[in-house]
Amino acid sequence: MATLASRGSGRLGSELHVTLWAYRAACLCMLLYITAMESSGRTLLRQRYSVFDRHETTVDFGRGEAICADAIIYGYDLIFEHWGMWRQMFWLGVPTEQDPSDFQVIQEMLWDQQPDVVIELGTNTGGGALAMASVMHLIEQATQGSPEHKRMRIITIDPRDFHDPAFPGDSCTPEKPCKRPDTNPLWDKYVTFIQGVPPEAAIVERVRGLLKKWNATTVLVSEDSSHAHGDVLSNMRAYQEFVTVGSYLLVQDTKLTRMWKAGGCSEGEKSIADIDACYREGRVGPLDAVEDFLKEQPEGTWQKDKSREYLAYTQHADGWLKRLK
């Protein structure tokens, strides 16, 4: 969950007025709280814009208590943010700020694809790249001597150097100190760091040159930058050409679009129609960038691969884009 900007600036702030229990009482598929649901149009709208797979499934607890899956999944997502769980995620001593269930799926994707190169847009602390390097190392060992064996690499790009003392913010404490990713030998073996803004022409050309040098035939791109709509869309446009057919353009933290709109679209006294229009027409965060990107693409080029969301909870819902042609 690396970012090009300070993670704190892109997280839930005091302006995001989301009450878990009010949301719980407003879920579309709830059985017990119909009266509360009918009296709360704003929280109802938030559920309407869920993109979790099977989000309307009803979970029956018995004793006359039931709730829809979205309230459980999104409620956990809010807790993940409010409790700062992302600050607690480390890989070999390096902060990753990556949800472990999503990284489990990323590991599976790396095994399935066995890409020659992963292009990571947004290095942040370097923990995400180091974690992927660890998986690549295991894959190379597992396929040693087989036709599937290949040399795998990561290109990770960020405007800021991961050596910057401002990184990784408050993830590191005297009680839990952090290590730099390049102190691990896997970093030098698998990772190439490029400092720069990903869509700038010189950076794109450098990446193109490395892919040619390494004769890369399978390439996967992970967009994990500032999460701002414009940045994400620019990165997707610039790096889509490198994603090979059958591989993925993974757009991380699509969850933030819903969270940011929950606050921004509900500010002040607004009618339900105004809030609805704000959700539909506002262009905020990674998920809206995904939708805008797909509208630009020829039909049948990309598929939202919901099979990668089998754990139900993912911070990248609708962001697992598989290239079909």
From TrEMBL:
One Pfam family linked to the record: RMNT_CmcI
GO molecular function, one term: methyltransferase activity
GO cellular component term, pick one: plasma membrane
Gene3D superfamilies, alphabetized: Vaccinia Virus protein VP39
Biological processes, Gene Ontology terms: lipid biosynthetic process; methylation
Keywords in alphabetical order: Membrane, Methyltransferase, Transferase, Transmembrane, Transmembrane helix
Residue ranges of the TM segments: 20-36
Protein name, as recorded: Cephalosporin hydroxylase
Organism: Chlorella sorokiniana (Freshwater green alga)
